[in-house]
Amino acid sequence: MKIYVLRKKKGRKYTSPACAKAAADIVLEYEERGRPVAEGLHVSVSDTKNWWGMLTADAPCGFDLEENGRNLSALTAKKLHALEQQYLGGLEPLNSEWRAEFLSIWVRKEAYMKFCGEGLRMGLGKFSVLDEQLNYAQTVQAKHRPEAYVSGVDVLPGLTAAIACEAPFEAPEVIVCEYAGESERDIMDEAADLLTARGLTKAELKKKLKSKGFETEEVEDAAMRLEELDYLDDEAYAARYAADAARKGKGKLRIARELAQKGTDAEAVKAALEAVADDEDQLSERDRAMAEAQKMLRGEKPDEKTLARIGRRLSSYGYEPSVIWDVLGKLRNS
User: Fold this and answer.
1) Category of 35 on φ-ψ map: left (φ > 0), alpha (ψ -120 to 50) or beta
2) What is the pTM of this model?
3) Which domain holds residue 192?
4) Does one domain contain both 329 and 243?
5) Domain tally for the chain?
6) Taking CA 27 as the corner, what is the angle to CA 33 and CA 44, rounded to the nearest 5 degrees?
7) pLDDT digits (tens, 9 = 90+) for 267-298
8) Cα–Cα distance for residue pair 73/331, rounded to 1 Å
9) Which of 264, 268, 266 is nearest to 204 (CA)?
10) d(CA 174, CA 164)
11) Cα–Cα 20 to 30 A to 153, which of 9, 257, 269, 330?
12) Reduced to 3 states, what is the DSSP secondary structure of residue 56?
């Protein structure tokens, strides 16, 4: 007996057949009344907003999984069996103890109803998972339904789960799986929106697409296709970025560092910096550094403390030491 569980990612689609295939290489199908079946195994599936789980066993079984943080209503408890209502009635509605006990009852009921192959169609009030002493029953049997062994099981923190099985069972193995699901959008549409919003290097685009759950192979294919269509061009991006950064007063060391952090290759960075140096509309590196220094002086004659502050500022802007010393020397002698 095994439980496979995976956490869903935002903005992705998850179907039980796809999850079963990814988690356990199981081909999952559904009977006409909605019961999941798999060749050679008994299976039961549970699906919440943020989690998906599947139980596999050698005997008929039912499995339910709920998130502890799900929204609950005290009115729902009125649909339960009289014994269960009596038990919850002794607790403060909706406090932490009430929530924990309600979910423990709920998952046991769901697991048994799935074991019977009926689900919620059976009716929540037609059987109890508590005995006459208001203890959790080891076995549960609704009228005209088979008996099952029912027990809560530990899966992961923040989740409450239970199993119903034809035969007594030990704690199952819990296998946490990774599966990104399927995109709700075409990857090329997603990439186009990202590139329209702002310029990106190939490395930045790939990182963003992967963060949205796209698989590495499809991301690589999309990036290659976008390069072929000239929507992605790291050299052109680097040239634009370097020119804009230079106009903002940044030195070539900082420009090179920022482009490298964006995943731009060294050759593209070198070409971009050379283009800035050759651009007649751009100030030279020394002139840009002097312009930044003059902004700090505001027309005042500098003292050594001010010169030191200017030197630190120019260094943070990415100017080479030789340029900084040249500027400071000229300011001293001005």
Assistant:
1) beta
2) 0.61
3) 185-232
4) no
5) 4
6) 50
7) 999 999 999 888 877 888 889 899 989 888 88
8) 74
9) 264
10) 16
11) 9
12) strand
| Lowest pLDDT segment from 20-29, 47-56, 84-93, 206-215 | 206-215
Are 80 and 143 within one domain?
yes
Task: State the DSSP H helix or E strand holding residue 330, giving kind and residue range, or none if neither.
Answer: helix 321-332
| Separation of alpha carbons 127 and 90, rounded Å | 20
Q: For residue 43, what are the CA distances in angstroms to 78, 160, 273, 330? A: 30, 19, 62, 81
Q: Residue 198: give its domain's CATH number.
A: 1.10.10
> Are 39 and 141 members of one domain?
yes
Q: Are residues 274 and 201 in the same domain?
A: no
Asked if 166 and 154 touch (Cβ cutoff 8 Å), the reply is: no
Residue 11 has pLDDT above 80, yes or no: no
Four-residue CA torsion sign, 206, 210, 214, 216: positive
Beta bridge partners of 140: 148
Residues 19 and 82 in one domain: yes
Phi, psi of 76 (to 5 degrees): -60, -35
